[in-house]
Structures are given as C-alpha cells and as structure tokens.
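Q: Hi! New to this. If I give you a protein sequence and the SMILES for LARABZUK, can you show me the bound structure?
A: Yes, paste them in.
Q: Okay, here:
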Amino acid sequence: MKTALDKIIDYKHSEVAELKRQISFAVMDEKARTASPARGFSSALSRVAADDQNALICELKRKSPSAGEILPGADPVQIATEYEAGGAACLSVLTDGPSFGGSLEDFAAIRAAVAIPMLRKDFMIDPIQVAEARAWGADCILVIMASLEDTLAAELTDCAIGYGMDVLVETHNEAELERALRLPSPLIGVNNRDLKRMVTDLSTTERLAPLIPPDRQIVAESGISTAAHINRLRQTGARRFLIGESLMKRGSERQAAVRELRTTSCN
Ligand SMILES: O=C(O)c1ccccc1NCC(=O)[C@H](O)[C@H](O)COP(=O)(O)O
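A: Thanks. Here is the predicted structure of the protein with LARABZUK bound:
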C-alpha cells in the first residue's frame, strides 16, 4: 500500500512537469544565482549547539497527512516572528500546498519578516526545485532518503551546495542512514515519524544516533512536544531539534513554549 509520502511524490512529478512548462532550468538557475545570499542554516544551528544549548528548527504547517488540519487560518508571519522571538535558531516552512497548506508566497513573506535562516520544506525530486528554493530565498533544502535513489539524492545535494545552501538529509532507519552518510552534507535528520503507521516514536532517534559519526550533526525530527522529550533526546547527543505540530497548536503560549524547549536541560 502507498504511504502518504509515496502519494506526495506522485503529485510532485506533475507539479515539476508544470513548473518546467512555465520556466526553463536556465532561467530558474539565473534567479537562484542572483538571489540574496543564503543565511547559513547549519552554522546557525551549530552556534547554539556548540554552547550545549538546544538548537530549535521551528516549523510552520497548516495541516499534515498525519494530523489533518492543524491551524487552518494561520498567519505565517505572526507565527514565524513568535518562533524567532522565543529563540528558534532556524525555521522550517512547508511550501507544499495539497498536503500541508503551504506555499512559496508564505515562504517569501516570512523571510522578509525574520532574520534567522529558513529551510524550504518540500519534497525534492528534481534540481529545478532546488534552484527554485534558492530563487525564493531558501537557506536549506530537505533531501528525503526514503523517496530518492542514491544518484538523485547526490545530484540534489550537490546542486544545493553549489548555490551556497545547506542540506538536511532525512532518514527513518538504518538502511537510509547508511546511504545518507555517503552524501557530503553534515546535517543528518532522524525522523521519528513512521510513515507507514503514521505514528511517532522517539526511540527511532535513540536507535540511530549511535550510528551517526561525530563529524555529522544529528537533527531529531517529529513527535517532540515537551521538555521531557528534549531531555530524553539530549541523552542521545542530539542538540538540534525540528518541531512542528506541537508548537503550531500552542496558540498564545507559542513564544513561551519555544523558550522553554530552547532552554530546558541547558546549563
Ligand atoms: O507529518 C506528516 O504527516 C508527514 C507525512 C508525510 C511526509 C512527511 C510528513 N511530515 C513531515 C515532517 O517530517 C514533520 O513535519 C516534521 O518532522 C515535524 O514533525 P512534528 O513536530 O511531529 O509536526
């Protein structure tokens, strides 16, 4: 049976075909090369983590396949500024429309309102999406090992690095991790969401973290909502955390919630 990720990848092929009808790679490449410089996603995380603090990547998404509607009328700029004021090191902004309710227009509006680096969170299957991400100001892209062959994962990674962006390489299990470690990106995401069963389990990070060499940086992703979760994940050595749904749902306490997760267990 197809997972939610498989279904997303199916329609990404149509989206990319439509994008290529509208604009050539050469034109998109030129836009990418003349965009304002990337802000340094990985280095912003490392500045916080080097102090043994929690480097948070706070995520914006209106809905998701696992949660359904999260915050349908969300004002992305307001939420992003709350994340930044609470101490987020970086942002992750879903630009996928059909499954997550995001857009590149949201991305650009947020980038104009905050100073911290931003991940364009989308489902990359073609270099033109990487160029598009940079053209719209992205500082980092996501490469999901579960949905890419090795050659394409390497091509997308090289393309992003060539534009001065960072790459978060996402894994769910040992086999994907082994493949991810052949790529030149230091940022290795461990996603705690099982895309077949649509449940999160922090023991995924606990299992994979010891397999990640010290020259790579672990990003624990999904299913994080409390200080206890951060404390537990810190035991694995992780200092970088990607958090979405739980913060989107915090309403008027959002900024305080970011601050609490940012500082928990830190000296
Ligand atoms: O979240 C989903 O349902 C989902 C389904 C298919 C592909 C990706 C999906 N999620 C993307 C993510 O990895 C999360 O948005 C991210 O790690 C944040 O997770 P959370 O804090 O649990 O919202």
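A: The chain has a mean pLDDT of 97. Let me know if you'd like me to explain how to read the tokens.
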